[in-house]
Amino acid sequence: MESQIKVELQSWMGSDRMIAESAWTSSTTLQGKQKRTEADVERVVRTLIKEKHATPIESVVFRFWLKLPIQTDRQHMTHRIASQNGMSGRYRTMPAEWLHVTEDISVITAKLQERRMHLPHYENLCQQANDWYQALILDLKEAEKAAEITNKEYKRLREFYRGVLPQNNMTERITILNLRSFSNYQKLRNSEHAQLEIQQLAQLMLEAVENSNACPIAIKSLKEVNWDI
Questions:
Q1: pLDDT at 13 over 70
Q2: Class in CATH terms, 6-88+169-224
Q3: Is the pTM higher than 0.90?
Q4: Burial 98-137, CB ≥16 within 10 A → b, else e
């Protein structure tokens, strides 16, 4: 089954050379930096990461678009050193999509035998909550058109009643973070100790960065030290 969790690396700033040049600022002129070779860049980047001189790697910045369940978004947002913008239930009608039962959950559920009577209701409950919300929004829009409520009142009702939607409903987010924060994120979230959904999100973010080839030396070096910077 194709994953419902999606990641797109929309843009980035920086490179391995920019990391090295940030470090050289303390000891080299602009003209001196320009004379440094790619071998010099690799040597310095590897040394910085190995010796945990982290500030220069903040020269690389990533901008991600993410699609993820609300419950995973709550974990994602605990990483404070980032710029965040997310979907708003005041200005948008929340999409009627939720995280479906995954294969591993189905396998575990199959072991419960007589207790399984409660678990199939998950999809129905998600469907009912989303149907109720979507119908309510349509009704509120008609009430606004009929001047029964103002646009401000319509937005207030919409932002309040979105609370009925399940924590596994999908949402969207823009996250901007530098490579140092990205490394910390990978260390904590791309780990067997993290919840499976946020592991998947972290892995997709890593794959997007690796595919971009933005700073391959730094990424390889960070992986070698288990993202400990």
A1: yes
A2: alpha beta
A3: no
A4: bbeeeeeeeeebeeeeeeeeeeeebeeebeebbeebeebb
